[in-house]
């Protein structure tokens, strides 16, 4: 386990250096805003990775939880004068409660049926936001959402960047701790075989429920931060398009890797920015072409690299170092210690 701990520490150090240096190396505020969006997407993707990669559940409605968190915090702050910081906290809690209710309702579903149920949930949330005009503003959206200003932090692009990535870091460390704990081993056991996990004394239903709730809270937290960062909201970003994007981020980075969610967020958003630049010169690349591109990437990854980028790179490095046998022994030990 010691080599893994050393590798984890090195990864965290490199990650922190990149996060700190990014706005210093790229001084343009445009890149800072892109960095904020990447961080917000990474928070959602890390939660989705816990559900899909560790607990083995499929969710196509993550944008719904994102939207619930965004509108909860925005409505509380803009219409009822609740401090944005408190609104963000409530914006994380409410989606967690909704996730608990939804998870209990669809607890018996698996595979395609689970995917369709979560997809329907996402549509219900988006339609509800659009139709509840008295609260959400409906299709016209909301304006004048107060910024998240904590002792001056969040009042500029750079400060908001560091604030968001500070939250990303906390979410990342929390998730890494889960992954390396008994809970994480139970999640992986469920992902590999629910029957085997049950035989080892793992409460499959409760662990699935906890993963879904944590994922919903992460998405809600990201949505609340998004609302106060943008200052305006409308129902459009909280539909199927964003759910597919979140799913693509997780699959591209690697569903079984927490780091994969971060890498996937960077890669997919970089591709999105490239498409925007190309769209200025090639009109046929404008519109919803990014949805088509993300869908094509998703299919290609599933066909040719189902484990994702981070696990594939890690596998290459392990083979080059001859660590395959030690990794197999480590997995066996994890399975034995779940119970």
Automatic annotation (TrEMBL):
UniProt keywords, alphabetically: Cell membrane, Membrane, Transmembrane, Transmembrane helix
Keyword Isomerase (UniProt): no
Localization (cell): Cell membrane
Membrane topology classification: Multi-pass membrane protein
Residues spanning the membrane: 12-31, 37-56, 88-106, 113-132, 160-179, 246-271, 291-310
Entry-linked InterPro entries: ABC_transp_permease (IPR001851), LivM-like (IPR043428)
Protein name: Branched-chain amino acid ABC transporter permease
């Amino acid at each position: 386990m010691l080599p893994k701990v050393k590798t984890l520490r090195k990864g965290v150090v490199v990650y922190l250096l990149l996060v700190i240096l990014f706005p210093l190396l790229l001084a343009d505020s445009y890149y800072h805003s892109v960095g904020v969006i990447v961080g917000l997407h990474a928070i959602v993707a890390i939660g989705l990775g816990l559900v899909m990669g560790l607990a083995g559940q499929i969710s196509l409605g993550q944008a719904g939880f994102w939207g619930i968190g965004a509108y909860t915090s925005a409505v509380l702050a803009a219409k009822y004068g609740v401090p944005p910081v408190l609104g963000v906290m409530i914006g994380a809690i409410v989606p967690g409660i909704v996730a608990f209710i939804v998870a209990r309702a669809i607890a018996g579903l698996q595979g395609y049926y689970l995917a369709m149920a979560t997809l329907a949930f996402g549509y219900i949330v988006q339609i509800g936001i659009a139709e509840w005009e008295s609260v959400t503003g409906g299709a016209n959206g909301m304006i004048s959402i107060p910024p998240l200003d904590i002792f001056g932090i969040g009042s500029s692009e750079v400060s908001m960047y560091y604030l968001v990535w500070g939250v990303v870091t906390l979410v990342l460390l929390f998730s890494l701790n889960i992954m390396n704990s008994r809970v994480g081993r139970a999640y992986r056991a469920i992902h590999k075989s629910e029957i085997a996990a049950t035989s080892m004394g793992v409460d499959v239903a409760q662990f699935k429920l906890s993963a879904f709730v944590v994922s919903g809270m992460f998405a809600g937290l990201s949505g609340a931060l998004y609302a106060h960062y943008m200052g305006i909201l409308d129902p459009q970003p909280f539909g199927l398009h964003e759910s597919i994007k979140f799913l693509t981020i997780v699959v591209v980075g690697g569903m079984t890797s927490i780091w994969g969610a971060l890498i996937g967020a960077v890669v997919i958003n970089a591709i999105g920015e490239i498409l925007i630049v190309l769209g200025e010169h090639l009109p046929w690349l404008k519109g919803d072409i990014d949805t088509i591109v993300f869908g094509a990437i998703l299919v290609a990854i599933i066909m040719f690299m189902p484990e994702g980028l981070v696990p594939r790179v890690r596998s290459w490095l392990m083979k080059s170092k001859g660590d395959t046998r030690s990794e197999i022994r480590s997995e066996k030990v994890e399975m034995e210690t779940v119970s």
